[in-house]
Design brief:
By secondary structure, this protein is α/β, with parallel strands linked by helices. Helix content is 37%, strand content 22%. The two termini are 33 Å apart.
């Protein structure tokens, strides 16, 4: 069986990319496997087993085309292939919001085209959510123009309005659509541009367009000027057209929607120049995009779910969603997420396990107070839906109850939606919590080994099964997780689940305290985690289930069409 696997290059930060790299050597033993990635993501060196450029993929030469796809902007290139060729999608997430915004920039720009795209990608209900969101954003924009003059800027200086990312060294990124609020009598706007993620920068006011500068013009000139009409609200809108992820974003896994990077912004009135403070706060931070407020209500996945020929998913929950959306017989397999059984199936004994844990803590240079505590470690980017506020509140309650709990947030803040340091301070946990920033895979493994309890809270959920959670199980650690649909399917013997809701903080605190006081119970959960991975999740088992599923699935429609065409041509030639 010849299989073409379509994925992203190894140079991109990607959880799904990590999953694929673990799976590849085992899947290659089950079938004749060729891997294809976009040409600009090919590794520098090549060998017989290296990925091939995507342009070399010929559908009729393979029995199956297999796409590793989830809610990552870097997967946008797969959608036209699925539409043209069909094939099998390994659907890692149900909500494909970030992917859709990257694949269809019109969604971010709004207007009639954006609404039509939302209807096409999500159907009537999601189209209504999209329309409500865009109307709400227009109301925000209009409200910024109310009471111009002294009410606009009491000091007379310029001010940011909506649509800006946080300040960085050397300047500040706008979102694809950003607003400046200037004094109504401002006569000229000066913009110093270092980079843009789009084709052009369009400057307009409430009455219409004022100027537009192409990417080439911005690169050549650096500084551009816009004459302002004066009067009115003083609002100036900066739209970066056709914005796409930059090369740096792709390398670093940055999912923000970027517009243009400004190193200096000023305006002139009455012959006097006033410079905008790029470090000043904005009333509404751009985050990913104003649509991010409704991201969990906008799966926007029909180009995938309705166009693919067959599916592999990691939970029965997502399988049911796929079947309901297609409303037709669909070749589909539920294949457990993979994990490496680092400690083997058998328990090494609680004493040996504790020695290994302490050795990991020494390797991380943890002091005595941290080494002797009950250590919780939460993995992944620090985002609002990871329920970090609930985790911190529960930990504070647990410490009040006398449990010596310490917490490591093993990930980097993503976007500007959370001030995690302020949340830690508000919970009174300053020295009891550490933030590591981004971690490579080997560093993640060291923190898992050091942990007493791994934490994987979610809510709302994208429907994705957590690779980080399975990595923790594979290294013999119990996991404290949110009781959501897809995580609810995991065995309670090694995953302790707490439902999101009004009782969540109290329940989390209770579980933390009980586990902190009962190391024997933790040991039983850890032994169960090793057994579960050995019996259900080892990569060779997962690869075998892939191969069995593909063998039962139909060929991709591009190959079926070519076979039918060949048969017709052969019949015509013989007549």
């Amino acid at each position: 069986m010849q299989v073409a696997l379509v994925t992203t290059g190894a140079g991109l930060r990607s959880g799904i990319g990590d999953y694929t790299r673990h799976l590849l050597p085992h899947l290659a033993r089950e079938c004749e496997l060729s891997t294809f990635v976009p040409r600009d993501q090919l590794p520098a060196g090549t060998s017989g087993n290296s990925p091939r450029p995507l342009g070399e993929l010929r559908p009729r030469e393979h029995d199956h085309i297999l796409y590793q796809l989830g809610n990552e902007r870097g997967h946008a290139f797969m959608l036209p292939l699925i539409r043209s060729w069909g094939g099998t999608v390994v659907l890692h997430d149900w909500v494909l919001f970030d992917l859709a915004l990257a694949a269809f920039p019109g969604l971010a720009r709004g207007g009639v085209k954006g609404h039509l795209l939302a209807l096409r990608e999500g159907g009537l209900r999601q189209g209504q959510v999209y329309l409500r969101n865009r109307r709400a954003q227009r109301q925000v924009r209009r409200s910024l123009g109310v009471g111009s003059g002294a009410g606009e800027s009491r000091s007379g200086a310029s001010a940011f309005a909506e649509g800006w990312h946080g300040p960085e060294d050397g300047g500040r990124w706008s979102g694809p659509c950003a607003t400046l609020r200037l004094p109504p009598d401002a006569q000229r706007l000066s913009l110093w541009v270092a980079a843009t993620a789009g084709r052009s920068l369009r400057v307009s006011g409430p009455q219409g367009a004022l100027a537009e500068f192409t990417r080439r013009e911005l690169a050549a000139r650096g500084e551009v000027f816009v004459e302002l009409p004066g009067g009115g609200s003083g609002l100036v809108f900066l739209e970066t057209t056709s914005s796409r992820p930059t090369a740096a974003q792709s390398r670093e896994g940055d999912t923000r929607l970027l517009g243009t990077f400004f190193t200096r912004v000023s305006h002139a009135r009455a012959g006097e120049e006033q410079v905008l403070d790029l470090a000043s706060p904005a009333p509404q931070v751009a985050g990913d995009h104003p649509l991010v407020l409704d991201r969990f209500s906008l799966p926007l996945n029909r180009s995938v779910v309705r166009q693919a020929d067959s599916f592999i998913v990691h939970s029965e929950h997502v399988a049911q969603l796929v079947r309901a959306e297609r409303n037709a017989m669909t070749p589909l397999s539920v294949v457990t997420h993979g994990a490496a059984a680092a400690h083997g199936a058998e328990s090494s004994g609680s004493r040996h396990e504790e020695q290994s844990r302490q050795a990991a803590r020494r390797g991380l240079a943890l002091d005595e107070d941290w080494s002797s505590s009950t250590l919780l470690v939460s993995f992944g980017a620090l985002q609002k839906h990871k329920r970090i506020d609930k985790l911190l509140d529960a930990m504070a309650k647990g410490r009040e109850a006398g449990a010596d709990l310490r917490l490591v947030l093993a990930g980097a803040p993503q976007g500007d939606e959370l001030d995690v340091e302020a949340m830690i301070a508000a919970a009174g946990l300053g020295p009891m919590v550490r933030i590591t920033g981004y971690l490579a895979e080997d560093q993640i493994a060291r923190w898992i080994d050091a942990a007493d309890i791994c934490v994987n809270l979610r809510g709302p959920s994208t429907g994705g099964t957590s690779g980080g959670l399975h990595r923790c199980l594979g290294r013999g650690r119990l996991v404290l997780a949110s009781d959501l649909n897809e995580q609810g399917e995991l065995p309670g013997s090694c995953v302790i689940k707490v439902a999101p809701g009004p009782e969540e903080v109290g329940e989390l605190a209770r579980v933390m305290v009980e586990l902190a006081r009962d190391p024997d119970r933790r040991g039983r959960h850890e032994a169960a985690a090793r057994r579960y991975v050995e019996e259900c999740c080892r990569w060779p088992l997962v690869a075998r289930r892939y191969a069995e599923s593909l063998a039962a699935f139909p060929h991709p429609r591009a190959r079926r069409v070519s076979l039918i065409k060949s048969a017709v041509e052969a019949a015509d030639a013989g007549s």
